[in-house]
Model the fold of this input.
Amino acid sequence: MAHRWTNTLTLNDATPRDVFLNRRQLIAGAAAGVGLVALAGQARAQDAALEPNSYEDITQYNNYYEFGTGKTDPAANAHTLTTSPWEVQIDGMVDKPGAYAMADIMDAMTIEERIYRFRCVEAWSMVIPWNGFELADLLDMAGVQSGAKYVAFETALRPDEMPGVRFPVLDWPYVEGLRLDEAMHPLTIMATGIYGKDIPNQNGAPMRLVVPWKYGFKSIKSIVRITLTDQEPPTSWNKANAREYGFYSNVNPEVSHPRWSQASERVVGGGLFAKRQPTLMFNGYEEEVASLYEGMDLKANF
Done:
């Protein structure tokens, strides 16, 4: 697969967790916060180094409503999800539709380490060291046809393994979507690990989407289907409340949620009296992704 980044890290190169947490300076990509990776082939030092959240923060504080609506429910309940064997159906406007075994996908991909900011629509944030591969490489493997404009995603729906789907919190299964250029952007990854370990069930095992300039609910978990289409696909939170959750859901401090401001955020793990920090446009990835939305009204297309 052709990679658009110079990084060639594998899981074996991932920094040990204890060392990672003690390091005060991380190599990063501009304001984007991409650690140990060079965007467009040029490594640039970030003005202020990012310090990742602890493994415990990342894995014990989650939204994954299929396992409950509380922040600790997924960690308590997601052990019931069977993640191996696993298949992802790739269909729609692709040259090679079919059921792709997770093991075959992993064999075909080069796993990289990406340190990304993570911003929830609820106005809390983390910094997460993901391991994964560019979504573009998976789509290239399936062969995107020329008329495709969007990518639709679907989460597993297993009532026997997911206690949360017994309640009509959302219209199950969970679905999400991206414009094709967003999906093919080199920052967009499919995450399969955290801190060099396999991604835990509560974080979206065995494979989840990560789109770091969008609110976290766009980064759909435990994916079982990917569909290329020429129509904008429905998305779960937009279907539930279109006034509050738009299709794009880009992090934007200038556009408030109807029930709260998005101008600042609470950093998870910062302690009870931690100060809120200002939210960055596109979650700090403005230089890399703003061109995707040139000429668009970001208040109308929220």
Summary: Residues 135-142 form the longest helix (8 residues). DSSP finds eight helices and 14 strands in the chain.
